[in-house]
Structures are given as structure tokens and as C-alpha cells.
Design a protein that fits this description.
Blueprint: H1 2-11, H2 16-40, H3 42-47, H4 54-57, H5 62-83, H6 85-102, H7 112-128, H8 138-156, H9 160-165, H10 171-175, H11 177-197, H12 204-222, H13 233-251
């Protein structure tokens, strides 16, 4: 995701130095959130037998990971603010929402909100870092937020039963697997449509092709496959979809600066 956001920053006209700051801020923010999540979920992951987690296997000590998460967050703050005050505050709001998710919001019906904020504020981070701090295009924030909701749903799908057993009752767990799949498809397809049709200028053949690819990816990400209910492929497909949508925007020469809608 840091590569996608950095590419959008470059296409939007952000100076090379600030593009590097954007890359560093997004990367450290993501690392802090991921490491925080692993530390908070240690007991649940252990109970679920998550052998893909270093904490569960004993390859990494909990204190080490906690220190790493705090260090990444401490680095994220100055890197974000160095892009610009408003830009930095927007990015840190998204990172803070993700930490709030890890620390308890995931257990509530508002579990989708941190993902919507986190993804939706990434284009705001880029736009507000431009000279004059122009407001981000509405279509970019909306498209990002819809992608975030879809990412939340596809990320949770493999673990719904284990989450319920552990007392985690976010929105997907309350909806159940079938309804969560439908909602994920709607969110991802809506995101694809917004990011194709709403930016300035005609989509052109490349834009419509990208819509077809992202739409198909969205459907594949949520279609039930027997024996693969616990696969991580739906979430990975969502990330691929986000990269495809961003690539289509770059191919059309659409950035996030003034005149982008």
C-alpha cells in the first residue's frame, strides 16, 4: 500500500523529497498497526493455533514486538507531519483509527469505521501535502473509504468462527459469512465504479478495462469456494484490486492535485 500511495503522490505533483516522506510515513504507520495487532491478538492467535504468527511459534518475544510497534508509531508521527501539518494530521488520524480498531473497536458494530477512515484518508494525506494544501477530491476519499470497508470484510472472513469463539463481535461477525461476502462485493464494486467514473476526463478504453478487471477481482475475492473458507486470498485480492485501480488512474494521468475533481 505504501508503494501505491507514493506513486499517487508522485503523479499528483508532490516534490520527490515529500514523496519519500509519504512513503516512510505510510510504511511506518502500517508496520505499527500490524505489529500492534499481532501483540494484542497473541492469546487469541495462540488459541486458534496460528502457526503463521512468530509470537505464537515463539520466534519473537511479545515485549520485542511491542517495542517495535511503539517505535514505528514514534517514527510515523514526525514523518507524517513533515509532509505538512494538515496532511500529517489526516494521516495520523487514520493510523490512530487503526490502533483504536486493534485495541477494542474491532469488537463493536463500528469495526468497519477505522478501515474506512484509514483508506479514505490516504488520498487526503497526499492532496493536503501539495502546495497550498488543497482539499482532496471527494471521489478519491469516497473510493478509498469503500475499498477500506471491503478490505475489512475480506480480511475478517477467514476468521469469523474463531473470532466469535473469542468474543469478537464486529460488524462481519454479527452479519455472518454469507452476508459479509455480499456486503464486501457491494463495497468493492462500488469502489471500482467510483474510481473509474468519478475522476475528471473520460475513462477511455484503459479505464473501462481496469473497471472490468477490478470488478472481476472484487467478485472473485468474495465468491465462496468449498474448502477455502479460511483462505487469505480474498484480502490479498482486495489489495491487488486497490493497486489496479491506482494504476488505472496513473495511466490516465489523474492525480490528486487541484483540478482533479
Amino acid at each position: 500500500m505504501s508503494a501505491v500511495v507514493t506513486a499517487l503522490a508522485a503523479a499528483s505533483g508532490l516534490a520527490p523529497g515529500r514523496c519519500l516522506l509519504v512513503a516512510g510515513a505510510v510504511l511506518t504507520g502500517q508496520l505499527s498497526v500490524g505489529w500492534c495487532n499481532d501483540r494484542v491478538d497473541l492469546e487469541r492467535d495462540t488459541a486458534a493455533g496460528r502457526s503463521d504468527k512468530p509470537l505464537v511459534t515463539g520466534a519473537l518475544r511479545p515485549r520485542t514486538l511491542a517495542v517495535a510497534a511503539a517505535t514505528a508509531l514514534a517514527l510515523c508521527v514526525p514523518l507524517s507531519l513533515a509532509v505538512g501539518l494538515l496532511a500529517g494530521l489526516a494521516h495520523l488520524l487514520g493510523v490512530g483509527a487503526a490502533w483504536a480498531y486493534n485495541l477494542g473497536l474491532k469488537r463493536t458494530p463500528l469495526s468497519w469505521l477505522p478501515y474506512a477512515l484509514g483508506f479514505g484518508l490516504l488520498p487526503a494525506f497526499v492532496a493536503l501535502g501539495l502546495p497550498g494544501a488543497p482539499p482532496p477530491p471527494v471521489w478519491a476519499v469516497l473510493g478509498g473509504a469503500l475499498l477500506g470497508v471491503g478490505a475489512h470484510l475480506t480480511n475478517v472472513l477467514p476468521d469469523i468462527e474463531a473470532d466469535l469463539a473469542a468474543g469478537v463481535r464486529g460488524l462481519p461477525q454479527r452479519l455472518g459469512r454469507a452476508r459479509s461476502r455480499v456486503l464486501a462485493a457491494l463495497a468493492l464494486l462500488s469502489a471500482a465504479a467510483v474510481l473509474t467514473v468519478a475522476p475528471p476526463g473520460p475513462p477511455g478504453p484503459a479505464g473501462w478495462t481496469a473497471l472490468g478487471v477490478t470488478g472481476a477481482t472484487a467478485l472473485l475475492a468474495v465468491l465462496p469456494v468449498a474448502g477455502r473458507e479460511h483462505s487469505r486470498l480474498p484480502f490479498l485480492a482486495t489489495l491487488v484490486m486497490a493497486a489496479t485501480a491506482a494504476s488505472a488512474l496513473l495511466g490516465r494521468g489523474v492525480g490528486l492535485g487541484p483540478g482533479s475533481g
